[in-house]
Amino acid sequence: MLGFISQVLHKYPALIKGRLDAPEKFPEAQRNIAFMLLWLSDTQEGKAILNQNGKTDFAIKPPPSIATWKVKDAGDLDYCWGY
User: Fold this and answer.
1) 3-state SS, residue 18
2) Which pLDDT belongs to residue 57?
3) Domain of residue 59, residue span
């Protein structure tokens, strides 16, 4: 789901507002997933939210290209399929 949702958000960044624009409201266990989605979406909206939440390391680092994604476990393979 991570790969698929990140690409939907990349193509339609307006979907971030109202869904991921307040990651601090997510339960602790889900917050990092929200930050990862914002980073992988590679949008200005996502970068702004990351910066607002102190995740500047993610905001300035571009996500890896799908062509260079290393498949180390089933989650990585799921990411590639979803992408």
Assistant:
1) coil
2) 92
3) 2-82
